[in-house]
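Worked example 3. Consider a protein that binds adenosine monophosphate.
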Amino acid sequence: MKTTDILAETATASGFADLGLDARLVKRLAALGIETPTPVQAGAIPPMLAGKDVLALAQTGTGKTAAFGLPLIHQLAAARLPAAPRQASALILAPTRELARQILDALTGFSRGTGLGFALVTGGSSINNQIRQLARGADILVATPGRLIDLMERRAVDLSATRHLVLDEADQMLDMGFIHALKRIARTLPRERQTVLFSATMPRLMEAVAAEWLTDPVRVEVTPPGRPISRIAQSVRFLDPAAKLERLIELLAAHRDENALVFTRTKRGAEKIRTALERAGLEAGSIHGNKSQGQRDRALRAFREGRSRVLVATDVAARGIDIPAVRHVYNFDLPNVADNYVHRIGRTARAGASGAAIAFCSAEEMKEFHAIEKLLGTAIPVAEGTPWPGMRSSATKSRRPAGGRGRGAGPRRGQGGRPRRQRSA
Ligand code: AMP
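Given these inputs, the predicted complex is written out as structure tokens:
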């Protein structure tokens, strides 16, 4: 199945019952306002119910959690085989604590009334509580790889009866260096099992993992990278690095009532921006690798509840997190992996809403900028300044700026330099 758009935009005609899901589950979904399957759900649910392996290319916001969660719940509820102590019938692995918690919350909501039991295993919270939870056994265990290995080493969990394995945001798990942890975990599961892999991108290493772990998988693909959602108004502002912060504050202040996500490359950069925004009177939170779990949770909650309108984030910290109703995505720094641009801007224009994605590009970032335009296959409209000279791509050659040149903007000779290297997020 190939579809090119998300959620409400290309909702399929048939309902969840037509996909083969249990009537009670369908009713429960309707009570949650979920009635029409999204493309990834329509593609993944039937083969998963048939016990097949699935390889799905889908980003956050496509309804992917329900796409793997609903068939799992259906199968486990139908089997009526409660997990034995320390065992788990299904294991869902996710790269970050936030995503694991989000999956657990979504699946708990979907499965109300089925009697299924869940366990959550992530770093940053008490391992003893997790040992106690696992002692009872779990129908569905949601975990981050590092903490799960800790618990395996303590013999607090036994995966020898786990018949379903889901890898969510698998590309990010590989990016974060979890490949050995994943291999170790997978070795302890029975060979006879259903394996499902969800990933936003398909790097070469993933092809190898998929070939090794999946048997004759059904491929489901939605929103291929490089095909951004049409309702996002993209623009680029060519700015001096020193002018970026001031411009960000001006733009945010002009839309005080609307949510905005600001992406930076580094943890330090994220914190510097957050502090500057607070100083300028803009309530802002941040999520990145230097923040404790409690701080990240509080920042996300404040943002979700509208108490803070701006969230400053690094790619790794933000990936996979469902942040609703974002109107503006600012690329304060351009990502040096072009795919990440598509992931970042996909945070706006969710579920029928429209949104804006604003990129700030300094002379040093022209290489990244060209890579992004090449991936998109189109030129991003210019809202300020002109492309910095040097390394011009065909997409930008004949363009003229839509607006005038702003303060701090404009071409500078001799600065079309090298991209900065990405630091950890
Ligand atoms: P996800 O891609 O799993 O992070 O889901 C994104 C959001 O879409 C979540 O808030 C879900 O509750 C919501 N959602 C998932 N499936 C549907 C659906 N079929 N119809 C409407 N909303 C949905």
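Take a moment to read the result before moving on. The longest helix spans residues 64-79. Residues 232-417 form a domain with the Rossmann fold fold (CATH 3.40.50.300).
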